[in-house]
Amino acid sequence: MHVQRIAAFADGERGGNPAGVVIVDVLPEPGEMQHVAAEVGFSETAFAAPQGTGWRVRYFAPTMEVPFCGHATIALGAALALRFGDGQFTLQLNDATITVEGRRDGDTITAALQSPPTWSAPAPAELVAQALDLFGYHTGDLDPTLPPALINAGAQHLVLGLRSRELLAAMRYELEAGRALMQAAGLVTVLLAFAETSRRFHTRNPFASGGVYEDPATGAATAALGGYLRDLGWPHGGAIEIVQGEDMGRRSLLYAQIPPIPGSSIRVSGTARLMEHQE
């Protein structure tokens, strides 16, 4: 089984979040896909097979299947563009139908996904307290303009807005404790965010539920963040830029376009680079 290794949401020739991409005629059994994803070792591997006029897609982390993964979708869009030419591709996920565009301009590959619908809701106080304790934060560390919330754009996240970039850089936690909390709460990741401006955010995404300490670029959480900001009435001006992965040495850039219609899909875009070897 051939696995392409593509870094999504790259910052030029560096950074980005590595994803595995497997394009086959028929999807393997789930157990085999899980085994391949564990061997690849990236936070997610996307598996795609033709279905009708589009593609059937499933995503696997090293220890679990996830319903939607943004960076692996961007990587898949790049792989499909390389194989079939520039275009928009329809993807049938387990619980949603989305699209991804892939385009090549010389050595640069760009991709953009349209997320599943979004929603957000205030986070339960007990969950917030447990998350603060996990990361060693205190209530006073939270940004009151970004209240804790459950956010979703095809996958569930807890968002915690922090008052400073220094607090974000100081993020630490114990992996197994994080996995237990996220699995008990039905979270794919926790999104920690600092608003540098109303349109530029710095984020970190612990992904303990999938056996990964931290993701350097998380498209699903970025889409969910866009929907959350829209629900808040945040002055985003229709688009935001995300800087992620900086504190782990894999600076990544993500862009989200936020239409005004409540609950509507978020467009998340970035560049992709082919990885000659596993970094």
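The above is record 1. Record 2 follows with the same two-line structure.
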Amino acid sequence: MAENRSINKFISDSGLCSRRQADQLILEGRVRINGRVAKKGERVQPGDRVLVDGTAVDGAGEKVYLALNKPRGIVCTTDRREPMNIVDYLNYPGRIFPIGRLDKDSCGLILLTSDGDIVNRVLRATGQHQKEYQVTVDKPVTPRFLQRMQEGVPVLGQITLPCQIHQTGPRSFRLILVQGLNRQIRRMCEYLGYEVTHLRRVRIMNIRLGRMQPGEYRELTEQELDTLMNTLAQAADDTATDVDDEE
């Protein structure tokens, strides 16, 4: 039986979407409680029947947290009109959605969950939301390139935050970001005259890709989840604006 919860939390607890997305559904009049159109901020009482677009929503679902090694070509969207959407690709027996994004041409670690609350908490953990990438470019990496990448370059009307970068080969490097502007690494390299030929994300905060093969997924361990939740709790007072978390 449902507890007394705000309508947006009830919907996010069902795994349908995040609280912010639930608020939008409510504003669009697509949510009903006991047959009447729901209002933003309304509470769901035990025994209430909640419908979203005419489909019953159960806010008591068990939460799922997954790590996937996304292959190139898969799109991090829940939109079933996209033939290569990540939900149909994974075919998980339950409603889940990605936390952030990883662009179609990139591969590596992406987290998926049925917990709508955690999505914005992860994306707002500015300064503690480290993401680590392995990158290969089309020509030799120079000390000047590494310095400019580390210090920040103009991307989408702003200077990227300082980052950590370590050369791993003549044309390759590891990069640790604490922000997630749209296609940030590709845009940074392009600004400096380089083209990314391979990009793989190997870590999100404390979660590592490890030895998972492309297309393989697993549940987060109890220790991984505890560490993640503790980090998010410490960052709860951050007031940063939303990020795209897309590479």
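The chain is about 25% helix and 25% strand.
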